[in-house]
Amino acid sequence: MAASKPVEPQAGTGLPRWQLALLVGTPIVLGAGAVYLWNRRRTKETKGSGERKTPEGSASPVRGGGDGCHSPLDQAQAAKNKGNKYFKAGKYENAIQCYTEAIGLCPKEQKTDLSTFYQNRAAAYEQQMKWTEVVQDCSQAVDLNPRYVKALFRRAKALEKQDNKKECLEDVTAVCILEAFQNQQSMLLADKVLKQLGKEKAKEKYKNREPMMPSPQFIKSYFSSFTDDIISQPLQKGEKKDEDKDKEGEAAEVTGSSGYLKAKQYMEEENYDKIISECTKEVESGGRYTAEALLLRATFYLLIGNATAAEPDLDRVINMQDANVKLRANALIKRGSMYMQQQQPLLSTQDFNMAAEIDTRNPDVYHHRGQLKILLDQVDEAVGDFDECILLRPDSALAQAQKCFALYRQAYTGNNPSQVQTAMDGFEDVIRRFPKCAEGYALYAQALTDQQQFGKADEMYDKCIVLEQDNATTYVHKGLLQLQWKQDLDLGLELIGKAIEIDNKCDFAYETMGTIEVQRGNLDKAIEMFNKAINLAKSEMEMAHLYSLCDAAYAQTEVARKYGLKPPTL
């Protein structure tokens, strides 16, 4: 796909992205969920996954003296026990009457018992789908017993039914913390609500966001992932004025009649903000380079996060039967990548397959389709595509590194030590044959980190930084390594801060900083970092993920304020 950073597979992990947190050696809380180490993803057993459907206490003993007189509390317990029998028989209205009697009889100072009676009545109302009554009774129970897990969770479910996602999230967050993130049922509800909130907020925000040009580092990294892309190539010989062709150290002047050629000149000068307008001039004039201008304009629309504007331009290029086939194939790759970002894998696959049909010897098609296959957890097909790319372009170090990474992930998740070692040997071969491929060192470092070979992973990141000193992402990964390896929080934050200095539009750096601040318990700072990342998100899907993180952190602030509950911190 149209990106140069490592592809992280989503399918097959069994975990949503909001739960994939820092690897710091022990499980530490992130947002409303637990940190999952990668090798834990294969573990299917989860404690406490049973549903909470029954009322509290099936037959509490009735206390009383030998003379047969019973205290008000004893009478309340008897009413509750009778209600429980009705509940188990499915006679919910009778159960409600008994629980109401218990509430009326129970002395007000017996807060724990009284909270139980309210919670039990809420359970009966829940069976009748009377969500308002469920919320009211659970609220009474929680007021009496603020750490009452059953009441909090039952209220969370009722609030979800009422579409009150914000308060539902706060309740289920409290439940997760109280249960030490060991109950799958509450974790799944938290995940569900966070995803819904994230999608809703991202849809509104993304629709009204101001387009933002990414950093020059990101743009150059993006274009470097293509080797057969006409629009990203330097100005060709016939595109410059004769008197400027031999000027050294100066940007060549281009003919004033072509908006596209001016746009290409601006690309060389890294004056990216003017490219879309110049391409528009070429398109509106029906100039010689209309197809190229449409593709270049669409590419920059995608880079600023305006897929709505990019799609019709890509459609036009794809349907231009007389256009250069490489332009059409490149447009298909970019539209396919766009569809994948929009979570439309079938449309994405169709576009990549069409690109392979019309330009069978284009290595970019196979390289980017290979990354798509990794995302779809189709590793064998991904490896086949990388092999085809390498066959067409043997010097494609990036494809060779990605192939090793795909084989490694397949071996690691399949718990196959011999294949893991084969993949690691493959990385060694890649960095030996392509010592200037920064991506090879970065991917190898990720694999070494998984294998807990931290010292060597650190060396790989250092070599990557030497080759690409302006690559902010590498500094972030190296910072995370310090946390996992040495638990060196100061050094980790220093390296991530360095990433932000290099590229103040690096959303990954802000997201990671926010994640660390959550783990340190600095929730206000975490929310600030997540909001910065949200404003820099390059797709609606990425924005939804970031909103999930931000909402999880905000929910924790509310839980801490209301109940004094805080998860473990670094």
Largest sheet: 2 strands, antiparallel
Q: In terms of structural class, how would the helical and strand content be classed?
A: mainly alpha
Question: Could you give me the name of the CATH homologous superfamily of the domain at 72-208?
Answer: Tetratricopeptide repeat domain
Low-confidence segments, given as residue ranges, are 2-49, 241-255
Instruction: Give the helix tally.
Output: 25
Overall average residue pLDDT: 86
Strand neighbour order, sheet with most strands: 1-2
Q: List the secondary-structure elements in sequence, H or E.
A: EEHHHHHHHHHHHHHHHHHHHHHHHHH
Kindly state the number of beta strands.
2
Compute the separation of the termini in Å.
Answer: 36 Å
Shape: elongated
Give the percentage of residues in beta strands: under 5%
